[in-house]
Every structure is written in C-alpha cells, then in structure tokens.
Design goal:
The structure holds two protein chains of two kinds.
Chain A lengths: L2 E14 L5 E9 L2 E7 L1 H4 L3 E6 L9 H14 L5 E6 L10 E2 L9 E7 L4 E3 L1 H5 L36 E3 L3 E13 L4 E5 L9 E6 L1
Chain B lengths: L1 H12 L11 E10 L2 E15 L6 E8 L2 E8 L5 E8 L32 H16 L10
Antiparallel strand pairs in B: 1-2, 1-5, 2-3, 3-4
Helix pairs in contact in B: 1-2
The chains are: A mainly beta, B alpha+beta.
Chain lengths: ~210, ~150
C-alpha cells in the first residue's frame, strides 16, 4: 500500500462524461488526513505511516489514545476518530503533516474499501441467488433452501454449503475504480461506479 | 452537510434554464459524433412530457415523420444538446400529453397561445452557486470529466 486517504461516502449521482455519455458516480469526501505516527524499519521492523481522519471530542478519548495523538494534535489541533496504517509510504512523512487529495489525479485507478450495508439474517434466495419455487399453482415450495445433501452416508452437511445466514456488514473492496473528478477545495472526489455502504459511512481510498 | 454537498454537485450540472413547457413545439439542436467529425442535427416536435428528476430531468418530444409517430427522450442538461428553440406554444390542459398518441391527423391539433416564459428556480439556484464560486475562485472548473 503506497498511498491512501480516509474519508466518508457522500452519495451517488449521475453526470456526463467527455463523450456525452451519462455515467454513475459516487462522491467521496476524502481527507485532509493527518499523520499520527511514522514507523521505521529500525524501530518497528517495517516502514509505514499511520494516518487519521474525522473529528472526535477530547473527552471521548482514553488517556492512552490521547497520548498517541498528542504530537499530531499539537500540529493540527484536531483529535481524529479513525486511523489506518499505510505500508511503505512513498513521500516524506512526519508526524502532524496533512495529507489531501492532491496525491490522486483525475483518471487514476483507485481501490475503495468500506463496510457493506448490513442485511441481517437472510434466506438463500436473497443471500445466494437461489431460484426458489413457484408461488402458486399448488406449489408448496417457495423460498426454502431445499435438500442440503445425501442421507445416512455421509450423514453430514458438506462444508461451505450455501445456507441462510448473516448477510452484508462486511469489509468489501472495489478494485480499479476510475477517478472521474477531484474538487480539491471541497476535498471531494468522484469515482465511477458504486461504493459499498450507506451515505455517511467511512471509506478508505488507496493505490497499491 | 452531506446533503448540501451532493446538492451542489447536482446544481453544477444544470447548464440551461427550462424555458419551454409541455405543449410547446420545439427544435432541439443536438450534436452527432460520426467518427471524429461532429455535426448538429435538428429534431422538431411537440413536447408531450417533462419528467422532473432534478439534474437528470428529461423531456419527451413527439413528431410524426412519414406517417409514423416518433418520440425521443432528451436529457435536458445533456452537453450533447446545443440549444433548444421554441417555435410556438399551444394551449394544453394536461401535464402529460400521452393522449395525442391515439389522435390521427387533424384530431391532434392544438390551439396556439402566447405564454410567458416560465421561471426555473433550479436554474436560478445553479446560477447563484456559480456566481458565488466565481467570486471565490476566478479559475473556472471543467464541467465534464474524462
């Protein structure tokens, strides 16, 4: 992981590209992120920087967390809510330095990671795309999973069998999303396509 | 705050006022790209519907060419539309003139009427935002990205 930013999903909209084609884009508010910690091979065994994003009230931080952010706070005046580590950060890094969207350019390809919307406990039709049975015409089989395997031999259900269960709410990464537009003065970035999660949820945008 | 930001992005796309109404005869000048050549074609017809969908507002234009009814739906704020010319206004009592599809020949005639230019509050808001932005930063932003 070379460079990246933390941010929030703003929402989706449509816009026209250069050829007059209508495309779907997602607006992300990314950065400014402050560097909280610089890790070096000598001291920590590997090279990385830890960046933080978002605001949190001082009283909501534990003493240990506050101590960890002390140096960055002196530079920026903000205690951050979210933090993430970037391995092998390419540019010069020092604690308290602010990172913003200038690290990306329009036309770049980025990875976007966030948590998908939680769907709760779902059946096989929604969760795995099973066809289900007929709704009418005397059918008694509607949305049930059906047979889960053979009988006495092997007398167990195969591991990995697709069954009902919790869906969504998982960390999901969308790869190679195209950066359509960057508005640096508002810390906004438009990427083509959709990003997992609800509007307002936090996202992590990075390049490898 | 999140909502305002998305709202402002939408407003940026609004590049022309809605200065015609349902029932108007319009000429739509739209760009056609053939290979690397670009030319403008005119489509003339009656506006039978306007779908209000914010920045993705569209309007439906109906014309009868060679005895065949043709309807085209144009996105109002599409950059491929060069301009929209109003030819004449007609008296209509509905917002959607789908009943005209069943009218043949002289049945579908409408009475001409002089109408005042309709106000477009969304365009006004978009202009206001653009003016505020221009005042804040003199460098103009490119409207359409790659």
């Amino acid at each position: 992981m070379a460079k990246g930013l933390l941010g929030t999903k703003i929402g989706m909209m449509g816009m026209w590209d250069k050829n007059g084609k209508y495309i779907a884009v997602t607006a992300l508010k990314c950065g400014p992120c402050s560097i909280l910690q610089v890790k070096t091979p000598d001291k920590d065994g590997y090279s990385a920087v830890q960046i933080g994003f978002g605001k949190i009230k001082e009283e909501n931080l534990s003493k240990a967390e506050k101590g960890h952010q002390k140096k960055a706070f002196e530079a920026t005046g903000i205690y951050v809510r979210h933090a993430i580590e970037l391995r092998d950060f390419p540019d010069a890094a020092e604690v308290g330095k602010q990172l913003d969207l200038s690290m990306f350019a329009e036309g770049d390809r980025v990875y976007v990671t966030s948590f998908s919307k939680g769907r709760g406990f779902q059946g096989v039709v929604k969760r795995h795309g099973f066809g289900g049975g007929r709704k009418s015409h005397g059918s008694t089989f509607h949305r049930a999973p059906g047979s889960v395997g053979a009988g006495t031999d092997p007398s167990e259900v195969v591991k990995g069998k697709r069954l009902p269960g919790r869906q969504g709410g998982k960390k999901t990464t969308i790869v190679n999303m195209k950066v359509v537009r960057i508005i640096p003065e508002e810390n906004l970035m438009l990427v083509q396509g959709s990003v997992p999660g609800a509007a307002g949820s936090s996202v992590y945008v990075y390049q490898k | 705050m999140i909502k305002t930001q998305l709202d402002n992005l939408h407003l940026e796309l609004i590049n022309r006022p809605l200065d015609f109404q349902v029932g108007d005869l319009v000429k739509v000048h739209y760009k056609i790209i053939e290979g690397n050549k670009e030319r403008i074609q005119i489509y003339e017809g009656l506006v039978i519907a306007i779908q209000n969908r914010g920045a993705s507002k569209t309007f439906t234009v109906r014309r009868v060419s060679f005895d065949v009814g043709v309807e085209r739906i144009f996105p109002l704020y599409s950059p491929t539309i060069e301009k929209i010319e109003k030819v004449r206004s007609n008296k209509v009592r509905r917002a959607k003139l789908y009943f005209l599809r069943d009218k043949a020949g002289k049945e579908g005639r409408l009475k001409e009427i002089k109408k005042a230019k309709p106000s477009d509050k969304m365009f006004e808001r978009a202009e206001k935002l653009r003016a505020a932005k221009a005042a804040a930063a003199p460098a103009p932003q490119p409207a359409a990205a790659e």
